Amino acid sequence: MESLLCKLSSMLESQYRRNKRVEKDVLFLRNELSSMNAVMQKHAMSEESDSQLKAWMKEVRELAYDIEDVIDAFMAQVEEKPGQATGIKGFIVNSIKRLKDLVSSSTIAEEIGELKNQVIEMSDRKKRYKLDMSISKDTNAVIDPRLPALYADVSGLVGVDGPNSKIIKMLTEDDADSRFGKQIKLVSIVGFGGLGKTTLAIQVYQKIKGQFDCTCFVSVSQRPHIKKILADLLVGLGSADSIWDDEHQVINRIREFLCNKRYLIVIDDIWTITAWEILKCVLLENGLGNRIITTTWIFDIAKSCCCSFNGHIYHIEPLSDTDSRKLFLKRIFHAPDSCPSHLEDLSVAIATKSDMKDEWELVLNSVGMKKILLLSFYDLPPHLKTCLLYLSIYPEDYKIPPRSLIRRWIAEGFIAEERGKRLDQVAQSYLNELINRSMIIPRYINIYGGPVFQVHDMVLSVIKSLSAEENFVTVVDGQQSISLPKRIRRLSLQFNDSEDAVIGTAITSQKYIRSLTIFGFTKQVPSFSNYKALRVLDLAYCEFLENHHIECVGSMLQLRYMVLHSNFITELPDQIGNLQHLELLNVRFCSIQGLPVTVVQLRKLVCLYVSLVKLPDRFGNMQLLEELTHILLSIAQYNWLKS
Questions:
Q1: Of 56-60, 129-133, 636-640, which range is least confident?
Q2: Average pLDDT of the chain, as a whole number
Q3: Contact in structure between 523 and 499 (CB atoms under 8 Å)
Q4: Quick check: 435 and 299 in contact, CB under 8 A?
Q5: At what angle do helices 369-378 and 457-469 cross, to 10 degrees?
Q6: What element of type H or E holds 80?
Q7: In this protein, which residues make up the domain named Disease resistance R13L4/SHOC-2-like LRR (predicted)?
Q8: Which runs of E-coded beta strand occur in 223-288?
Q9: Distances from the Cα of 374 to the Cαs of 142, 172, 190, 368, 382, in angstroms?
């Protein structure tokens, strides 16, 4: 929605305002959609939104896509192309262009008028049903999904002994040295929701609390009631006083109570630095060797906790495969080592059924894991929600290169401009924030010397479910027949290196697709000539692409990101010069010997990845070019680059 509002504002500031009818309708669309966007951001994918409101927001998003497609198509027609003819030929060409612009202006006026009527209908529906005032009809009290962890049976826990020992060592190291042993020592446990931070903190707390004069375990939660938390802390530590007028009085009373006592306090589930800054005021330094444990899923909060005291950060990791199997067998079969023999055949039958996805989704929802992860998702600001949902295009365990992801986000229009920063710098800050919030996991260095990232399987399952619900990304497995949305916006084809994968006509006939990505090597070559709205085209896994398959790309005027990796591609079409918005072109593994001369018309190209290819003359016209790989330069070109 943000990118659409920017484009509507640009139209009002440009030559298109000379058409008074178009100007009036565009102004209406911008103002009305701005109001709708405010409502959507207020309720953005929140659990508190009821089904009517969610359905209305989904329709608004779909309409926003349609409006943006119309505006982009119109602006692509009337934009001036570089290298246009001059003289008599130029006069004829420009006259024809003005005639086409006149026809285009008339067409855009009609289309915008129709879209305006749809916006009015949606606005009226919101008022008619009072959707912006609607609240969830679920009157049941919200139950903290972490509550069972507070009373977990120790005998049923798996994989906690190692982390327990490490955290206890962090809390007790240097105790033999009186210079350090008497100071407050803190350990902050950090990791994404559902990994067992609360359970681990409780187990450590139970093991060492006997060494302290007073102890307390308090939970902060996403929307903390600070005064109640402070009062609970005071009572939990053993004070008889529990009622105070304000937070300041409670903090003073806690500090007085702790003045001559050695204490252990666990502050669980901290969501904001503001909450921590208030709660740390009670942690009196009295020289008695007090210990603090905090848990959070946000790395910056963990760092803030540690900076306040002599602290250590403990990154909690998912269970190993061995421990995961042990936990599964214990919970399902009450057997620590193996599946009971009389259930083995049934287990195989269940595991091999291809139509069990819905049933397993119900299991996922019932165990509470999804609710825990959704708490983290709903806490994200809107722009990070969008960027995280986009990761649902990737298969499980896929190693995501950050530079590629950043370029995709920019091509999709997800990155907002910030004063004094390039778009890739803003996108990098988005990526860093998702890592900081434990939604993306940094992994090892790849073969090219850079880091890669992964999305945990449970997080991926949740965002795939949300993406499908909002028609944000459509994932199609080549082996399965699924119900497709009427209008696919972003398509991820995941073939898993299958030779018999099938791409149905329901996919190839789509014309609203903005992003097409294929994962898994396949002999299938998708027909994408109808995809005029494409922004992202990634066919790196299509090894059998040939020259004739890509002849249509010159008509995809919105294309910003294109990856082709086929040895059968020996040349790019001359029409590639029409792609005035193209920012990344990666043909590194194609058999291309030279680029067409029209490539110099790609004025917005930032990244060009080729393999031992000679660049055409005048490539210096591409002033935004920042990254070039494996090119062959003439002496003149080399001197130009050097200068």
A1: 636-640
A2: 80
A3: yes
A4: yes
A5: 70
A6: none
A7: 513-633
A8: 263-268
A9: 14, 35, 17, 10, 14
The end-to-end CA distance of the chain, in Å, is 42
Helices and strands, counts by H and E, the chain: 21, 15
CA distances, 289 to each of 173, 174, 261 (Å) = 12, 11, 10
All residues at 6 or more sequence positions from 138 whose CB lies less than 8 Å from its CB, including other chains: none
User: How far, CA to CA in Å, does 106 sit from each of 46, 81, 203, 509, 591?
Assistant: 41, 21, 71, 28, 45
- At 238, list the tokens: 């053993």
Decide: helix, strand or coil at residue 602.
coil
What's the pLDDT band for 158 if we cut at 50, 70, 90?
Answer: low
From 591, 575, 584, select the one nearest 606 (Cα to Cα): 584
Scanning 437-550, the segments in alpha helix (DSSP H) are 457-469, 505-508
CA distance 101 to 92: 14
| Fold of the 372-457 domain | Arc Repressor Mutant, subunit A (1.10.10)
**Going by DSSP bridges, is the β-strand pair 185-190/291-296 parallel, antiparallel, or unpaired?**
parallel
d(CA 116, CA 8) in angstroms, rounded, equals 13
What's the mean pLDDT in 245-259?
89
d(CA 262, CA 264): 7
Average pLDDT over residues 214-236: 90
Residue that the structure tokens 């049941």 belong to: 140
341-365 pLDDT, tens per residue?
Answer: 555 555 555 555 545 555 555 555 5
The fold for domain 147-315 equals Rossmann fold (3.40.50)
The Cβ of residue 569 has, within 10 Å, a number of other Cβ atoms equal to 21
DSSP 542: B
Q: What is the pLDDT of residue 222?
A: 82
CA distance 165 to 557: 59
| Residue extents of the structural domains in the chain | 2-133, 147-315, 372-457, 462-642
Q: How confident is the model at residue 6 (pLDDT cuts 50, 70, 90)?
A: confident
One-letter amino acid at 165 equals: S
Tell me how far apart the alpha carbons of residues 261 and 184 are, in angstroms, rounded to a whole number. Answer: 12
Average pLDDT over residues 32-46: 76
CB neighbours of residue 447 within 10 Å: 6
What is 462-642's CATH topology? 3.80.10
Most confident of 195-199, 426-430, 628-632: 426-430
The sign of the dihedral angle between the CA atoms of 109, 114, 120, 122 is negative
Residue-level pLDDT at 257: 92
Tokens 């497609």 belong to 69
